[in-house]
Amino acid sequence: MPNNKPGSRLIKAAGAVAWRPGPEGEPEILLVHRQKYDDWSLPKGKTEPGEPLPVTAVREVLEEGGARLALGRRLVSVRYNVSGRPKRVHYWAARVESIDERAVPNAEVDDVAWLPATRAVEKVSYVHDHGVLADFAARPATTVPLILLRHAKAVAKGNWKRSDAVRPLDDSGRSDAKTLADLLASFAPQPRVISSPALRCTDTVRPFAELTGTKVQEERALYIHGREARDGSAGPAITELVREAIASGEPTVICAHRENLPVLQEAALAALAGHPAAEIPAAEFPGGSADRVVGGPIAEIPREWDDDLPTGGFWVLNVAQVPAPAEPVTEPDEPAADPPAPPLARRWWQLVRPLRGENAASADDVPNDESDQADDGDVPDAGTAADVAGVLISADRYGVTEP
User: Fold this and answer.
1) pLDDT in tens for each of the 403 residues of the chain?
2) What is the CA radius of gyration of the chain?
3) Is residue 143 within 8 Å of 73, Cβ to Cβ?
4) To which CATH superfamily is domain 144-322+389-398 assigned?
5) Closest CA to 152 of 211, 214, 199
6) For helices 171-187 and 199-212, what crossing angle results, to 10°?
7) Which residue from 169, 123, 137 is spatially nearest to 150, judged by alpha carbons?
8) Which of 13, 73, 110, 311 gives 35 a disulfide partner, CB atoms 3.0 to 4.6 angstroms apart?
9) Out of 2.70.170.10, 3.90.79.10, 3.30.450.20, 3.40.50.720, which CATH number does the structure's domain 11-137 have?
10) Do 256 and 314 meet the contact criterion of CB atoms below 8 Å apart?
11) Where are the domains of the chain?
């Protein structure tokens, strides 16, 4: 756990690239001015004893800049020395949910500015903020989290004589469930909460559901000893559950067991483009420049992906929506003499699949074969873009005892 007591050498801190949609659609980024130092920087601050770093980031941005956040993907961290001690600041991309206009001025900050990324880079006072802003600008800002959570620590099987379905959390598990409430709310302050009906799972998410005012949806297919697990229907049901959660575009937390979390992870990757294992690793994202097509994987799968999560651990999959269909190009009735050739209209599934041909670099380079002459009602082959529910932007692992 983070520790900033005098006896600890490393100073741990957290902050965020807090953003809101600007007038032209480009994100506006929150910068704060500290009167004591007469500097402009990203909002950040030190952790309190026992406080998870994501919770620190949310708290500090609210205190310094008055912005209430929903954290997105983890960004690069920054290291530097303060009075002879090393300091590490962890950052997240974070969508602004609301703003408390009364928060500024305060004891530390006397002014704030909301600027596009290019202008924010010019205004910040410290070079180390440039790398954080560059990392933020490298991927789409608008994402929705899918959180896959392992239940907190339960009473040992050998010490429990009643039904497994009602085996409860132990003392440390109940404590972790309370910690998880604030931690999960840092990423999903207005979530859907889905859980295995096992008591150890529902009790893990209950404090979080109470904090966010959400009802827990129990899903029988998630229970490892349920009828669905015995008759073989659990796997397809879980696959459909995960796909629907991604396609809904709503922040979703799914609490399950060590034994079936790999099934949820596999189902998520199968429903997402943008990663090395995807059928469709390329995507164009809404909100970017009109001609921006990202080729190849966007998100790398972390090396810990196949490792068991600890009790109370979770994955946050930050997902961008599948691009909307491209508008078809309308040919004029009487084109002028020798007009320039208009670009071919690219349907949405062409935007999220690699272009055919080894040297294809744009829609104009793709052979004009029958598949490109398909009617607008045609759908792509199964196993390609029709199966994509979203685009994976990052996969980040967390836990109550991990940063």
Assistant:
1) 444 554 568 999 999 999 999 988 889 999 999 999 999 999 999 999 999 999 999 999 999 999 999 999 999 999 999 999 999 999 999 999 999 999 999 999 999 999 998 899 999 999 999 999 999 999 999 999 999 999 999 999 999 999 999 999 999 999 999 999 999 999 999 999 999 999 999 999 999 999 999 999 999 999 999 999 888 899 999 999 999 999 999 999 999 999 999 999 999 999 999 888 776 554 444 444 333 334 456 888 999 999 999 999 999 999 998 876 656 666 656 555 555 544 433 332 233 333 233 333 333 333 333 333 333 333 333 345 557 899 999 999 999 986 6
2) 24
3) yes
4) Phosphoglycerate mutase-like (3.40.50.1240)
5) 199
6) 40
7) 169
8) 110
9) 3.90.79.10
10) no
11) 11-137, 144-322+389-398
Contacts of 378 (CB under 8 A, 6+ apart): none
User: Is the CB of residue 4 less than 8 Å from the CB of residue 85?
Assistant: no
Is residue 351 within 8 Å of 326, Cβ to Cβ? Answer: yes
Q: Report how far residue 192's alpha carbon sits from residue 39's, in angstroms, rounded to the nearest whole number.
A: 40
Burial of 319 (0-12, 13-18, 19+ CB in 10 A): buried
Which tokens hold the place of 101?
A: 């206009």
Specify the pTM: 0.82
- Is-same-fold flag (11-137; 144-322+389-398)? no
